[in-house]
Amino acid sequence: MYKRVKEENSLKAQEFEVNLWIDSKGNPAEPIQLIDLKGKFKVLYCFQNWCPGCHSKGLPDLKKMVTALEQKQDIVFLAIQTVFEGFESNTYDKIAKVQKDYDLRIPFGHDAGKDDKSVSNIMINYKTGGTPWFIFIDKEDNIVFSDFHLNAAAAIQYLKALETI
Q1: What is the pLDDT of residue 114?
Q2: Measuring CA to CA, which residue among 32, 25, 107 is closest to residue 62?
Q3: Strands 133-137 and 142-147, how do they pair?
Q4: Nearest to 38 by CA among 130, 138, 113, 162
Q5: Domain ranges, ordered by start, for the chain
Q6: Selecting from 3.40.30.10, 3.30.1330.30, 3.40.47.10, 3.40.50.720, what CATH number does the domain 7-164 have?
Q7: Contacts of 128 (CB under 8 A, 6+ apart)
Q8: I need a surface site. Which of 93, 119, 141, 155 has the fewest CB within 10 A?
Q9: What is the pTM for the complete model shown?
């Protein structure tokens, strides 16, 4: 299910352009840039606080992956609230609650677009189709997976096998 995209068809990851972040402990943090994660495999989870599918499927799947792979120092997990509607409900202050509710000790970002009332920069730059959405970016910053549907068990197997690649 998770096959590496042929190199000639690979898409390079774009800069995140997410300015509001909290660290793994829920404290305000400096923006995370793609360059900060050079040489690491990146797993981005895109969600909205008010999204039922994010809470019933996406966040539990993310928690499973983070727990199964917490010892892998070359894999970084990031959760980003990619707001494209419900700007009054999907606010920066909600990301700390989501982080705490799911006991996810990973950085969380809040992306409500360039003027805090437009479509998320991640959605534009990565051409996501809504939430929940997972994006895998390899160590060379190629997008190797981007989809609404994720099989958490298969994703964990794929990510565990990265150490042998």
Answers
A1: 78
A2: 107
A3: antiparallel
A4: 138
A5: 7-164
A6: 3.40.30.10
A7: 46, 82, 122, 135, 146
A8: 93
A9: 0.90
